[in-house]
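Board notes (copied after class):
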Amino acid sequence: MLEIYLDVDGVIYNINKCALDIASEEFGLTLEWEKNDDWWWQGKNMTDTPPPREYFEKLLNRKGFFLNGEAVDGAIKGVNKLHDYGFDIKFITAPHWSSPYMIHERMEWLEKNFDWFKKEKHLILTSNKKVCDKEGKVLIDDYPHNLTWDEGVNICYSQPYNREYKGLRMNSWDELVEYLIELEKEF
C-alpha cells in the first residue's frame, strides 16, 4: 500500500478560516477565507483589508488556536476512508516553533477527529518534508514550497493562494480520495 503523508494546515485543518474568522471578529471586518490569495492572510481579493502579518504571527501563538478550528470540507471523512481502505497515513506538519501550545493542540485535535490516530505512529513534526521522500510515498500539501519530492508523488491541495502551482493538484477531498485509490492500483 502507498504511504500517504498529509500536511495538516490547509489540507486537513482549515487554518485559513480559523485565522480570518478570529481577525474578522477582533477587528470588526469581513475577511472571507475563500478569497484569500496570500499564505499569510494578506490577500488583496478580500472585501476588507486584513490586519498586518505581525498580527497573524502572534495569533499562531495563542492558546487554543490549533485546537478549536474546523476541518477542511470533507477532510475527516476522506482521511478515514483512506485509512479504512488500508493506506498507511502519516500527518506531516511543520510546527510553529514559537508557539508553546501548537504541538500539544495539534495532537489533541488529531486524536479528537481520528479515533485510530496514535501520535507515536502517525505524526511527523518537521519543517523539512523532503526527509520523507521515497518511492511509493505521496505528499499532499497546500504550500508549493513543500512540494519538492523527487522519488515520491507530490499533490497540491488546492487553495486560493496556490493557484500558480503547475503540478498535480486536487480541488476537493472526494477528488483526492478517488485519485489515491486509482493510484494505488498502479503500484
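Comment from the instructor: The longest helix spans residues 173-186. DSSP finds six helices and six strands in the chain.
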